[in-house]
Design brief:
This protein starts with a helix and ends in an 18-residue tail after the last helix. 45% of the residues lie in helices and 0% in strands. Among the domains are: 11-41, no CATH class; 43-72, no CATH class. It has 118 residues and is an all-alpha fold. Residues 72-118 are annotated as: Disordered. Residues 105-118 have a biased composition (Polar residues).
């Protein structure tokens, strides 16, 4: 019965056209070294053929990244009984940060300003 446990698990490659991720990474690095451009691309087809759609997608992607960064900056530091050697002491943090994370208070983010309807 234990013979099935010892058998290696064979998985299909995850990459395009049946290639492994390692093969795809090697090809991508080779193309960057040869051309100096990501994946050997000279131009972006969507950017030249449909610039409005390209800008719309780009602005949504950038907005999502900015939002993720601001969310990550608002995550309070982990409380622990021991202080890390490289972590700053509480007194070196800006005053707004110290007051926002004082013990016993709940963390609330700064409300976002919205456009007023006229």
């Amino acid at each position: 019965m234990d013979m099935l446990v010892d058998a290696p698990v064979m998985r299909a490659p995850l990459g395009w056209n049946g290639r492994t991720l390692k093969q795809m990474l090697e090809d991508s690095e080779r193309l960057v070294a040869e051309t100096g451009r990501y994946n050997g691309l000279d131009y972006l087809k969507l950017q030249t053929e449909q610039p409005i759609l390209y800008e719309k997608i780009f602005s949504r992607l950038r907005g999502g990244l900015v939002n993720a960064r601001s969310t990550a900056l608002n995550i309070p530091p982990r409380r622990s009984s021991r202080r890390s050697v490289n972590s700053p002491s509480r007194s070196t943090l800006p005053r707004a940060t110290r007051s926002r994370f004082r013990p016993g208070s709940s963390f609330t983010s700064t409300p976002c300003r919205t456009r007023s309807s006229s």
